[in-house]
From TrEMBL, chain A:
Residues 1-27 form the signal peptide. Keywords: Signal. The lineage of its organism: Bacteria, Bacillati, Actinomycetota, Actinomycetes, Micrococcales. This is ABC transporter substrate-binding protein. It comes from the Bacteria. InterPro entries: Bact_solute-bd_prot1, SBP, TAT_signal. PANTHER family: ABC TRANSPORTER SUBSTRATE-BINDING PROTEIN, ARABINOSE-BINDING PROTEIN-RELATED.
From TrEMBL, chain B:
Keywords: Cell membrane, Membrane, Transmembrane, Transmembrane helix, Transport. Residues 40-49 have a biased composition (Basic residues). The lineage of its organism: Bacteria, Bacillati, Actinomycetota, Actinomycetes, Micrococcales. Residues 15-24 have a biased composition (Pro residues). One of its GO terms (cellular component) is plasma membrane. This is Sugar ABC transporter permease. Residues 1-49 are annotated as: Disordered. Belongs to the binding-protein-dependent transport system permease family. PANTHER family: ABC TRANSPORTER PERMEASE PROTEIN (PTHR30193), INNER MEMBRANE ABC TRANSPORTER PERMEASE PROTEIN YCJO (PTHR30193:SF37). It is a multi-pass membrane protein.
Amino acid sequence: MSRSPLPVSRRNLLAALGLGAGAAGLAACGAPNGSADGAESNLREGFSQADLTVPSEYEGRTPILFWAPFTGTNFEVLATQFAEFNESQDEIVAVAESVGSYADLNQKFTASLQARTVPDIVCFPELQWLQFHQSGALAPLDGYFDEEWNLDVYIQNYVAEGKAAGETYVVPFARSTPLFYYNKTRYIEAGLPEEGPETWEDLAAFAPELAKIEVEGRPLSAIAFGPDAWHGQADIWGFGGANATQDFQVTINDDKGVEWLEWMRKFIHDDGYGYLAQASGTDFASGLAAGWRGSTASLTGQTAATEGLFEIGTAYMLSKEGEQKQVPTGGSGLSLVRTDSQDRQDACAELFRFLAQPEKSAAWHIGTGYVPVVQAAQESQEVKDQVAANPNYGVALSQLENARTADYPNWDQGSVTEIGAAMGQVFGDGADPKQVLDALAATLQETLDDNREDYEAVAFEGWN
Amino acid sequence: MSITVRSPRTEPAVPSGPVPPEEPVGPSGGDAPMRQGRSERRRRSPQRRRRARRDALLFGALIAPNLIAIIVFSYYPALYNIGLSFFDWDFVAPSPEWVGLANYTDLFTDAGFGQVIVNTLIFTGVSVVGSLVLGLLLGSLLATKVPLTGFAQTMAFAPHMLPGAAVGILWLFMFDPNYGLSRWVFSLFGAASPAWTTTSDWSLWAITIAYTWQRLGFVTVICYTAILDLPKDLYEAAALDGAHGWKLFRHLTLPLLSPITFFLSITGIISAAQAFDIISIMTSGGPGVSSSTLSWMVYEEAFQKFDIGTASAAATVLLVVLLIITYVQVRYGDKKVNYDS
């Protein structure tokens, strides 16, 4: 094993020669605060590997540890791929430990940085990895790229989100978009189009028909809402608005934003066709609501959960009539944590290379519902067969044409929480959208102003 | 000449073993006691000094584990937290930025914070008083030897044994307006169940009810045990004087139980103000901040927004509020407590 790509060695050499900041820049260590602790390579003294249990048959190999924010089916698929990797060669053993959700990983990794006992690989959603990059926790990957494995192999929608200041810190892995799920069986029963709604106006027209169906003694709701900022991003774009401009101005409380939330408020509280659910996916799967918005990554799990109960249909995320449909990219990618071992970092790159093989990416997609991030995987026979067997996977794939990076406020986890809370006030309480969004905009602007310098340093390449 | 004073209650009738040197006490006034004390120390034998040192070492060794644990796990984090409240930090940036009192200023000028304080007071007050009143009633009822007392005791205590997360999930099901127990109860009256956990009108009450239910078991069992321990002769005397039922409870049971209710109210307030799991499971503090308490706010600011300074400032406020409440309780409530029983 021990792949030691030349650029890394050169970096170390240049650093050793003391060529200063200019050389460090050339050596791809130009993260905003990436060298705040004085480190000038992928290595970080004093940051040792967290405890892991290596299966006895793999003892003696270089162990690498991935704290995976996946559970259930998704973690099982991941474990299978890791087992295949461990069987594929004889010098590395990759261990995946489920830490729960993205939020759990965020907390655990933060604590591990304080304790200086870290995993080798992490997997953070969208652009929330930036805070860890800015603290110098992640290592650049460009030095490992070659003819066989580089950014060109991936779907390009997701590549720019892994880069900062021209360097790559995340390669796509578990990427997704939000998707509109509906109960096709109920739609057919109500005499509605099998392909589901295309616009919010469609849903408003379908809702009275769905409400004629009684479930547990109550009219069937057209949709169970969740107060999720990710969905909110697709919504506000679908009404022609935006959370913020690329010039760092928050616009969530502009007329388009108010129109979006007012439409939702009326649909829920005046018309009574939807509601704020505690767990919208659960309500949908149990048949209480005829629709919900979820990640493409829920597709396999939801399909299994509703098998024998009803048929799931999927559609693009809804927009207002006449407006452009757009969805934020989501999910996460693989990052290398700066630790004290070059061997382990090289081993991690080997794992990333393995997972970027088209057949592995296709298997991950089929097993979970996450998008096949490797371009060649989309063309593979396995994926084509899967789409033929279940067209919902095809909807998830074709919606990628509408995928783009979320606005700046969604880059910050605190702002994401604030947006979700604001949506909850309107969805749950029927609060006045204008008042809610005005208060929210002030908070978001303050945070954005605080983050502006860091975001500018990222020199994000993905806006166009 | 020295005067010795010996307590007749501690003096052994027949001294056994070596008789300890008598403690000299000088006449009142002047510096005689000090001089005599010094002379006494001079007179201490090397053997006694060794024993005193050994006792001191033993004392230190015995309290050290607890003392170290308290310092490391209680006082140090509390002081560290207070320190962090003067910084702006996201937990992962290489160095926190000193901001002075800005976090406190932001906190107290934030409209939402007032709501969080009110929520905390309502949640704490209602759950502590509610569990105390209901626990006293249930404890009294159990003490009257109702049929299946053992079973009733177990049932009453069971909620306290359940983890908060399980209690939260259980009540989420019961409160669900689509298929929960709440729906069934309201349907008996021809009404629709409120959306307990997803509307501001009800969310705080939903978590308060669930938490009160969870604590009720503990309070009930403590009260029940305390009632069984009350002196029977007082009740017999009161009964001879014609006291029955409510009068007995009001004028005898309640005063006699005052040490227990005092203890339960202090621990209840501290526990309720720190409640987290039920809030996390049932409402996540929402919608908006309608069911957010100080303890939830600390978590949300620290681990969802990664604003450690604000979280630490809120935690410091919580600490101060709890210290004040506990001080007031001990200072004034203690006078109302009857320890004679």
